[in-house]
Amino acid sequence: MVITLDLKTLGWALIIIGLLVLIVFCIVFMKNLIVTIKHTNKILQDTETISSIAAERTEQVNEAVGDVAESLGGLAEVMKGNQSITAALTSIVNALGSLKNLIARNKKDQ
């Protein structure tokens, strides 16, 4: 039994085999790409959650610092003699209350 192949038939056979191998590589690549995209989406969702929590905590700290600064400003006015004793005590109590709330939030977050 004798089989004869000309170069044209052999070339087409090699091209078809190469295309089949390329298709298999593309399928494997797409499978891995889908897994990677799903994992990336989970990471992005976690990042969004963490960013919102950080923004909320920053706002809380900003409010607490504002309250403390206001109270200390009132205390400075008292030191200058521009307020009554009752207002001075109120300012001190407010400053201590703001400081206590700030410490409590930090302990709760940890």
Plain-language structure description:
This protein has 110 residues and is mainly alpha-helical. Helices cover 90% and strands 0% of the residues. The protein has helices at residues 7-80, 85-109. Helix 1 packs antiparallel against helix 2. It is rod-shaped and about 120 Å long.
How large is the count of helical segments?
2
Largest sheet: none
What is the 3D form? rod-shaped
Please trace the helix and strand order, writing H or E for each element: HH
**Overall pLDDT:** 83
Which stretches of 5+ consecutive residues score pLDDT under 50? none
Tally of strands:
0
**Approximate helicity band:** over 70%
How much of the polypeptide forms β-strand, as a percent range?
Answer: under 5%
Based on secondary structure, the structural category is mainly alpha
Query: Rg, please?
Result: 36 Å
What separation lies between the terminal Cα atoms?
84 Å
What is this structure's SSE topology?
Elements: H1 7-80, H2 85-109
Briefly say what this structure is.
The chain has 110 residues and is mainly alpha-helical. Helix content is 90%, strand content 0%.
